[in-house]
Amino acid sequence: MNNKLSGLIAATYTPLDDNGQLDTDPILPMTEWLITQGVSGLYVCGSTGEGMSLSGAERRKVAEAYVQSAGGRVPVIVHVGHNSLVEARQLADHAQQIGANYISATCPSYFRINDVGTLVDCMAEVAAGSPQLPFYYYHIPALTGSTLDMVEFLKLGDKRIPNLQGLKYTDTKLHEFQQCLELENGRFDVLWGCDEMLLGALATGAGAAIGSTYNIAAPLYLGIMDAFRLGDLVEARRLQSLSVEMIRAIGKYPFHAAMKAVLGFNGFDIGSCRLPQVRLLESEIETLRNDLSLLGYFEWSQPSCRLSAISS
User: Fold this and answer.
1) Which residues form the active site (predicted)?
2) pLDDT tens, N- to C-terminus, the chain (312 residues)
3) 122, part of any domain
4) Is 48 annotated as belonging to a binding site?
């Protein structure tokens, strides 16, 4: 279980129809497009994929559709976190049965976890549902409210979770991220989860990142990675700045509904989001399109625009 992930992993979206019902038909063409864009993995039914707003049956259908669409070409990580550890373990078992490559889970968050030992107990229960699959704990304190020390979690988890692979680290503490990466001579795979800070994470040692905006601008982020590898930090900073501007433009609106609108601009009609996330007005969608156009998004987001093709 030591094979570490690399590159950009798209936190995938869940297509819904106009009535808010699950529609898996767009998953295959979206998967093809993501692979064409240069994405090297798929993270399914996480925050981006509205996993917490889907029923268990719907989550299983979405996971199955992405595993089938990927067809072994890129790894698929299925998020199975749930407030019910029983349900989370069953989702983990299902992920293993359908041929997913990895599982991941947030912690229960309705009843707050206040110590690392309890967090490890919870994640051990979930990970045991698919003992043959590597497990990543999904650390996203902004949504779960759990701000526990991830270095301590990895130390204790290593003793009690046999299939613990590492973390999906969706926080902004680069110092903690670095400590997790370096723990036990790099034993753990720690995946960066803040798109706006990819360059900082690369400088800290990140080898892979999971993000929402990799769905719509993978060539931009691959450009950042290329420039960093070449030692061209001026170019890497310029491209990261474009990412920040793009995310600020999208962030003027309900974020994931806006992201689904941007996917619509790219030819994928996948509806909006379920409550409590709200829909965009048609006027907001058009304003968003104009805002992105002013940034040159529709030029530099295309697969042909890699590093040297992205002009100042």
Assistant:
1) 138, 168
2) 568 999 999 999 999 998 999 999 999 999 999 999 999 999 999 999 999 999 999 999 999 999 999 999 999 999 999 999 999 999 999 999 999 999 999 999 999 999 999 999 999 999 999 999 999 999 999 999 999 999 999 999 999 999 999 999 999 999 999 999 999 999 999 999 999 999 999 999 999 999 999 999 999 999 999 999 999 999 999 999 999 999 999 999 999 999 999 999 999 999 999 999 999 999 999 999 999 999 999 998 887 665 444 444
3) yes
4) yes
Residues in contact with 138: Cβ distance below 8 Å, sequence separation at least 6, in sequence order: 46, 79, 81, 104, 105, 106, 167, 168, 170
pTM: 0.95
Q: Number of folded domains in the chain?
A: 1
Does 276 sit behind a cis peptide bond, omega within 30 degrees of 0 on the bond before it? yes
One-letter amino acid identity for 92? A
The answer to whether residue 66 is catalytic is no
Beta carbons of 93 and 105 less than 8 angstroms apart: no
In contact, 304 and 38? CB cutoff 8 Å: no
> What's the token pair of residue 122?
């919870």
Catalytic entry in 13, 138, 253, 297: 138
Phi/psi region, residue 179 (left: phi>0; alpha: psi -120 to 50; beta: rest), is: alpha
Does 36 appear as a known binding residue? no
243 is a domain residue: no
221 is an active site residue: no
Structure tokens at 13: 């979206």
Could you tell me which of 34, 80, 53 has the C-alpha nearest to residue 278? 53
> Tokens in use for 292?
């992105």
- From residue 225, how far is each of 34, 50, 241 by CA, in Å? 17, 28, 14
Q: What three-state secondary structure class fits 16?
A: strand
The encoded tokens of residue 135 equal 């497990």
Q: What is the CATH number of the domain that holds 112?
A: 3.20.20.70
